[in-house]
Amino acid sequence: MADAQPSRRRPLRPIVAAVLIMVCLAAVAWLVGLTQPQGGQGVATAPASLVTCAPPPPAPTSHPTFTSPPPPSVAADSAWTAVLHTTCGDLTLLLDGGRAPRSVASFVTLARAGYWTDSVCHRLTTRPAPTAFLQCGDPTGRSTADPGYDLPLENVPAGVTYRVGDVGVARGDGFPSTSGEFFIVHRDFTVSPGAPVYSLVGRVTSGLDIVQHIARIGGEDFRSDGPPFQSISILTVEVRRR
């Protein structure tokens, strides 16, 4: 009886090599995806590794208050630059006093009064929340601060669609806006019919990578609407007329 011959099998090396190549390509695609904008057109973002954050300062124990809103003439028909010095770097905003004179006048007045000094950005909304922004501007960090006045809605965008980099005024329950709190959009979103809409005051012109870095990390305890996992605080705000 003839000796049994070993069966012919396909070599494993080409299969293993192919699997390794596929894994490498998937990893590269994932890394590239992390550095891409999460919405909007032509918005470049930096890799997360380029954004570093310092520990937050102690929360303020008091904040300025006012008896009435500033007159819109403070900002009417003028553009303003606002630089937010934060624990994660600087963000520069361009504020449109022509389209939102009341809101921009309020922003300028609160910045000059030091209303936001050492205040934490206390809210981040991400999927599946219907909005997509980082909200700042409350000295208490609990959405309970009040500068002493409210503002009417103005400069609501067409189609109530908010774009990456937009800066808007937050709203409180039963109020057109809160005047003290503001948000920065990190992904395009459209407000659903019947949902609150927001006044637009301007846009981010530099530092948007900081906001998208915070959004990329996500919310505390994986929440889609709550404090960001990566803490970020506003140290000071500088404003000047352009």
Q: What tags apply to this protein structure?
A:
242 residues; two-stranded antiparallel ribbon; 3 helices
Structural class: alpha+beta
Question: What general form does the structure show?
Answer: globular
Compute the number of helices: 3
Count of β-strands: 12
Uncertain regions: pLDDT < 50 for 5+ in a row?
Answer: 1-12, 14-21, 23-46
State the order of secondary-structure elements, H for helix, E for strand: HEEHEEEEEEEEHEE
Rg over CA atoms, rounded to whole Å, is 24 Å
Estimate the mean pLDDT confidence: 85
How much of the sequence lies in strands comes to 15-25%
Structure in a nutshell:
This protein is an alpha+beta fold and 242 residues long. The protein contains three helices and twelve strands, in the order αββαββββββββαββ.
Walk me through the structure.
The protein has 242 residues and is an alpha+beta fold. The protein has helices at residues 13-34, 101-112, 208-217, and strands at 79-86, 89-96, 119-120, 123-125, 133-136, 161-162, 166-169, 182-185, 189-190, 200-206, 225-226, 233-241. The protein has a ten-stranded antiparallel sheet, with helices on one face. Strands 6-9 form a two-stranded antiparallel ribbon. A hairpin with a 7-residue loop joins strand 4 (123-125) and strand 5 (133-136). The longest helix is centred in the first third of the chain and has 22 residues, at 13-34. The chain starts with 12 loop residues before the first helix and ends with a strand.
